[in-house]
Amino acid sequence: MKQEDVEKILKIGVQLSAERDFNHLLEQVLTCVMELANCDAGTLYLLDGEVLRFKIMRNHTMNVYAGGDGQDPDMAPVPLCRENMCAMALLEGRTICVSDVKYCCEYDFSGPIRYDAMTGYDTRSMLAVPMRSREGNRLGVLQLINAMDENGNIRPFPENMILILESVASQAAITIQNVRYIQEIKELFQSFVRVMSTAIDERSAYNASHTRHMAAYGNRFVEYLNRQAAKEGKEPLFSEARQEELLMSVWLHDIGKLVIPLEVMDKPARLRPEQHTAFLHRMEVLRLRGEIACLSGRLGAEEREKLTRQTREAEKLVESVNTVGFLSDEKLEELRELSERTYTDEDGQAQPWLAEEEYEMLSIRKGTLSKEERAVIEEHVVITGKLLSQIRFSEELSHVREWASMHHEFLNGEGYPNHLTEKDIPMEVRIITILDIFDALTADDRPYKPGMPVEKALSILEIMAGKEGKLDPKLVRQFAESRCWA
Asked: Of 56, 81, 79, 58, whose CA–CA distance to 172 is shortest?
């Protein structure tokens, strides 16, 4: 073996071991083997069930370069039958070398012959090297065409080259298998994350599509940012790895909600069901007592009708404020007046029409949650951080825990749980926060409000960025421009 060949083999080993992108790896394998064999054309097949599928094709003379970009060449797969040279090599686990296909009757070369007739190409020498995993399982085939001598003339593949190519093919097979394992592990983890995210969303009827929407918007928004950077002649803002890390953070940002009580997370009204029932029962009791007092002569008919009217008005008031998104000063005053109204119970004790806790809940100015309930909800980001701290993320995903548990922080320090400010909030977190707020505003499955029109939601984001200083103004503007939700 020439020193030059040794150096080529070592170089190939370094190149293959460094490559982690599967499509690029396949391209590297075929390119390196063709260079080592000094041949004009080649094909890399991978086994798929009972057929060999074309993955990479190269033909220097015909200027054909197919595959390598994730799209398989548009060629019919090769059945695993003994008539096909490449299939036979894989079936028997041996390298097959043919000096000139035109004089070989052992295998079916009708395909190359037809190709030559259509294109004018001259297929002669061929070599098929099987690739097997370290366990000996069939993996694929490297098929090389037309070995060339130093003067560029077609010649048979040299015998001394076969062992070298088999060695490289073996190394390539192991590398392909390793990269496949890495991809399978990554896909398994990603599938697990999506399952967990779906479980969180499905746990609440009011949150069924939240994370999925955020991931879709986020992916399109990042692609928009990269396109804009390209237009400006800049490097992409997000590499593939950084984009994956951001989206993983989106998928996991609400995992802490797994332990939040549903009666808080899914609370559609200010009053809890038992409080609402108790209030309505109290009003009904007051009306019945009025009826009894009227029948016994202790209460006049007009007073009874007045009592009935007042209890109905009280019920109407409570119903009107129980689920409304925002309470006006007028409604708050009506509630205060109702809370001061009393009746005398059977023991002669004065009792309020509206219990103190009911009044406190109904007086919540915005939303349906009390201060204590909101604290329980806000705890989900802390729990998210605790849960994700139990996962050993790879280096490429090392920021997921941090980014996922910071998505409720605001640039002006008014967020939670740590009241971080602009200098402490990475761009990825700022993006997740915008996605989270936008989907919350536009979602039509929330218990306390109908879905908001997109333009109104964008207007609120602009206010939060400009007037309130909570969000990143540039990112909000770019988000609006991207129309990534459409």
From this structure: 56
Contact in structure between 435 and 250 (CB atoms under 8 Å): yes
CB atoms near residue 241 (< 10 Å):
12
For residue 55, give both structure tokens: 């993955």
Encoded amino acid at 58, one letter: R
Q: Quote the tokens at residue 230.
A: 């390209």
Tens digit of pLDDT at every position of the chain (486 positions): 565 665 666 566 666 666 667 777 788 888 888 988 999 999 999 999 999 999 999 999 999 988 877 778 888 899 998 888 999 999 999 999 999 998 888 888 888 888 888 889 999 999 999 999 888 889 999 999 999 998 999 999 998 888 888 888 888 888 888 888 878 888 888 888 888 888 877 777 666 688 999 999 999 999 999 999 999 999 999 999 999 999 999 999 999 998 888 888 888 899 999 999 999 999 999 999 999 999 998 889 999 999 999 999 999 999 999 998 889 999 999 999 999 999 998 888 999 999 999 999 999 998 899 999 999 999 999 999 999 999 999 898 999 999 999 999 999 999 999 999 999 999 999 999 999 999 999 987 655 566 789 999 999 999 999 999 999 999 999 999 999 998
R_g of the chain, CA atoms, integer Å: 36
Alpha helices in 323-393 (DSSP H): 329-339, 356-362, 371-388
**What does the alpha-carbon distance between residue 271 and residue 262 come to, in Å, rounded to a whole number?**
15
The answer for residues whose C-beta is within 8 angstroms of residue 483's C-beta and 6 or more apart is: none
Question: What is the pTM (predicted TM-score) of this model?
Answer: 0.71
CB 35 within 8 A of CB 147: no
Structure tokens given for 279: 């209030």
Cα separation, 372 vs 364, whole angstroms: 12
